[in-house]
Write a structure and sequence with these properties.
- This protein has about 375 residues and is mainly β.
- Helices cover about 10% and strands about 45% of the residues.
- A hairpin with a 2-residue loop joins β19 and β20.
- It is globular and about 75 Å long.
Length: about 375
């Protein structure tokens, strides 16, 4: 299943359980099962702050959150992910008509490599198995679906390989003239750790532009750490963020809730719909003296017009290895597999069909012995 947030406003996030209609069905999210009890802790304050003082105090904490994100915004990591997905869409839904108006529930697993340097590029290579979609069910781990993305200055690249049942092996390379790199793809789990929680801008920037932001007089202990809690209302809806000073001021927990008329990524939530999300960090690790969140439960709940039509996603994401601030240029992290380094895509092999998009013109090739051979069809 793809989580391309720009294809449809139904993408990622969850918050505090489920809607009343789904609770009646007895569906319990991973977040509820895995959640821990948070105990209140009072932080000493010299008298009651004014609204302006409180906002200023909250923004000081946001600055610390910015420092935490900046310190961990360049890395190479290996990861594992498992997710449970549930939903029910109208039969005429443009993107999920394959489900024919019936409820679905499935699990998918992944392992992969993620590389990122903000404003430089990002790279995601992963192998999926389990339930991928209605066409590809019960994919075995020894014959997984392969997908990889590269977005860098000058080009973007996507490759998908499926060796189970109907064979697929095709790559698409598109030229780009932009000098700016947008936010990384919003994949549940990693996107939350990078600061993108149902937003197109990084959450620290969203908080700075909030029409309301405050820090609670009473903090909370989350997994043994005394956290400061920020509440904010933004154009993306309401956020609560538990910042953990013992782990570099990364959020130990985030909840999000938005309603009709508010933004979700670059879309406006339609009438009668809601969007909620959560992030719960289970483990931090020090890498070169810098605290890094390495394990998280994250997810979402969306409704579409009524509680009867919904989509949920609950994900467990774990970084199994991570290198901070590598020399991406020297390592060729974002090298073009077609024209620079084919080894950057280990599944680019003889016979792979390659589509080249140049100036809105699509030309088809076949990859053979390190070269593009024009397709016979062309």
């Amino acid at each position: 299943m793809t989580t391309d947030a720009k294809s449809i406003w139904v993408s990622e996030g969850w918050i505090r359980g489920r809607t009343e209609a789904n609770e009646m069905k007895g569906i319990v999210p991973f977040a509820v099962l895995l959640n821990v009890v948070s105990l209140p802790v009072c932080f000493a304050q010299a008298g009651r702050m004014t609204v302006q003082e409180n906002r200023a105090e909250a923004l000081k904490l946001v600055d610390k959150y910015t420092n935490a994100l900046d310190a961990t915004a360049s890395f190479i990591s290996h990861y594992e992910r498992r997710g449970e997905y549930r939903g029910n869409f109208p039969a005429e839904h443009p993107f999920y008509s394959m489900y024919g108006g019936r409820e679905f529930r499935y699990r998918m697993f992944a392992r992969g490599v993620y590389k990122l340097k903000e404003n430089k590029g990002y790279y995601n290579r992963e192998y999926n198995w389990g339930y991928f979609n209605e066409k590809y069910k019960n994919i075995p781990e020894d014959r997984p679906m392969y997908r990889m993305w590269i977005t860098a200055k000058g080009f973007s690249y996507f490759h998908q390989v499926n060796r189970y049942r109907s064979a697929v092996d095709s790559a698409t390379r598109r030229e780009s003239t932009t000098d700016t790199i947008g936010p990384p793809d919003c994949i549940v789990g990693i996107s939350h750790l990078l600061g993108y929680v149902d937003t197109e801008e990084r959450l620290d920037q969203v908080l700075r532009e909030a029409d309301y932001i405050s820090v609670r007089d009473t903090g909370e202990i989350v997994r043994g750490s005394a956290c400061s809690v920020i509440d904010a209302h933004t154009e993306y809806g309401r956020f609560s963020i538990w910042l953990d000073p013992e782990h570099g001021f990364h959020p130990a927990r985030i909840t999000h809730e938005a309603e009709q008329g508010e933004r979700l990524h670059d879309h406006i939530i339609p009438v009668g719909s809601i969007a909620t999300g959560y992030s719960d960090v289970l483990q931090f690790k020090q890498v070169d003296g810098i605290w890094v969140p390495v394990e998280v439960n994250a997810g979402f709940h969306r409704t579409m017009g009524s509680p009867a039509y919904y989509m949920d996603e609950d994900v467990h994401y774990k970084r199994t290895q991570i290198i901070l601030n590598p020399d991406h240029d020297k390592l060729g992290s974002f090298a073009d597999p077609i024209f620079e380094d084919p080894s950057n895509d280990p599944e680019l092999k003889n016979g792979t069909r390659v589509k080249m998009e140049i100036n809105d013109q699509l030309i088809r090739y076949v990859w053979q012995d390190g070269q593009l051979i024009p397709s016979i069809d062309e």
